[in-house]
């Protein structure tokens, strides 16, 4: 993260505006332009815009119209940390998300097939990174479960050429050569079967399965050689229970590899909306829902019975022409707000304009675009097995660290060297 971005927050917002992108400052607006009736809602902020603007905006200088950019490019990626997490989890989480609402949002998003495919750039990127982690595991997987498969992004990524080919081989087979059978499971039939006719389906032994509830796995114990999950677990209410079920359906010494939104995802949008709300309405509405932190996930995995844990964080920063384009993409992804008891009613028009100006002032790029940070939490845990590698008992080491460093009192040698260096400098 950049030093000038100390504000922490969590937010995903979506919106549906007209078919052009409009660059707006606080004193700019588009004359004689009306919005379509739309649902303006977010994963962590909920607002809505209903009806048409009753009258044109008053403008102080002309607005700038630019063609819509349907597929923003990922600008940079920053790996923040990689560590073993052992923090103990807290009490079980309360019901936060309305799973039926989330199901309806994904169904509506998948109904617009072309638009839904355009905004899959983030899910495709994360699915590819998740699939690459299979390269670190030198084994063949007979049966793999893709839990929360969305539009089968992982299956599509597995059919791509090996991103880390063996230089000793003339050809590099795709990752599907290491998987005999992949089961893609999701609660949204429309999203799951959206790309069922695309060519990649012929390159992998893929079975699609519609789940009644992604929080309840009705598989037998010891069924899968690996379980993958990409960008779906951040909508789960009871993560400890789901992780325990995943551990149950895995075979002994089998891996669970997942990625989910967490931490400071879209903190730029969250802080801008809060400031705009405070400025125009005199207070901040309760539209924020929690996201898991990297330390939380380590504890939850440990409590579920996983061993040899690895949890790391990766930031993906995507540039958008304005905040409206960002919100529109998030809605088309199916990432609209599904928090129980979310606030109903439309957001005020002046709050939207204030948010656009504040976003640009606090976080805008020099080229006129705005950045949106998506923080990914990647995790790997292994189900305990009889042949699994175990750490040696404490005190069983046969090599003394003093012998490695040349013998003698290491602390005393360091002090002597320090004194000698200071004497030479004088």
UniProtKB/TrEMBL annotation:
<dbReference type="InterPro" id="IPR050602">
    <property type="entry name" value="Malonyl-ACP_OMT"/>
</dbReference>
<keyword id="KW-0808">Transferase</keyword>
<keyword id="KW-0489">Methyltransferase</keyword>
<dbReference type="GO" id="GO:0008168">
    <property type="term" value="F:methyltransferase activity"/>
</dbReference>
<dbReference type="Pfam" id="PF13489">
    <property type="entry name" value="Methyltransf_23"/>
</dbReference>
<dbReference type="InterPro" id="IPR029063">
    <property type="entry name" value="SAM-dependent_MTases_sf"/>
</dbReference>
<dbReference type="GO" id="GO:0032981">
    <property type="term" value="P:mitochondrial respiratory chain complex I assembly"/>
</dbReference>
<protein>
    <recommendedName>
        <fullName>Methyltransferase type 11 domain-containing protein</fullName>
    </recommendedName>
</protein>
<dbReference type="GO" id="GO:0032259">
    <property type="term" value="P:methylation"/>
</dbReference>
<dbReference type="GO" id="GO:0005739">
    <property type="term" value="C:mitochondrion"/>
</dbReference>
